[in-house]
Amino acid sequence: MEFPPRRVRDFPRPPAMERSPLPVRIVLGGVTIAETGAAWRILETMHPPTYYLPAEAFLPGSLTPRPRRSFCEWKGHAVYFTVSAGGRSAVDAAWGYPDPSPGYAAIRNHIAVYAGAMDACFVGTEMARPQPGGFYGGWITDAFLGPFKGAPGTEFW
Questions:
Q1: Which of 52, 83, 143, 147 is the most exposed place for a label (fewest CB within 10 A)?
Q2: Would you give the DSSP letter of residue 112?
Q3: Tell me, what CATH number does 88's domain have?
Q4: Is residue 142 over pLDDT 70?
């Protein structure tokens, strides 16, 4: 774990982007579907980090493109994927920015996942907890202090 823990209220807007100092691993259906020491994390005010892994870190066939699209005022247009492994599938549980805004070009060909849709997501050896709510994709670890946006009543923080 990183010390001292960082307060998410101190994260900037627009969000900062930095390399994860720890490896990241994702498990679905009892299978490690992605693992890398080259993840990026996005740090936005009141949010736990969202981790973006290189697309090549995912097992071949574990990501299936979906028609869903969304727009982030900072990163641009996102595309979504169903994540499948070990007999489980999580629809629209992963996303990426194929042509991100210039300030976020480093996450081109990188994929993020909703921790709550996976069996487990690890930062180093710590299992991350999903950010509250169903919209945001941050991963909560002991390295970051809340409160975290996402729960009912936090929409306008």
A1: 147
A2: E
A3: 2.170.150.40
A4: yes
How many angstroms separate the CA atoms of 130 and 139, rounded?
5
Domain membership of residue 6 (yes or no) is: no
Closest CA to 51 of 143, 147, 146, 153: 143
Distance of CA 133 to the CA centre of its chain: 14
Tokens of 36: 């890398």
pLDDT of residue 135: 86
Judge whether 147 lies within some domain: no
Contact by Cβ (8 Å): 126, 15: no
Task: Quickly list H helices, the chain.
Answer: none
Q: How confident is the model at residue 156 (pLDDT cuts 50, 70, 90)?
A: confident
Distance CA 141, CA 127 (A): 7
pLDDT category of residue 2 using cuts at 50, 70 and 90: confident
| Residue 107, domain extent | 17-128
Q: What does the pLDDT average to over 31-45?
A: 98
Q: How many domains does the chain have?
A: 1
Q: Does residue 88 contact residue 28 with C-beta atoms inside 8 Å?
A: yes
Average pLDDT rounded to a whole number, residues 124-134? 95
Question: What type of residue sits at position 92?
Answer: D
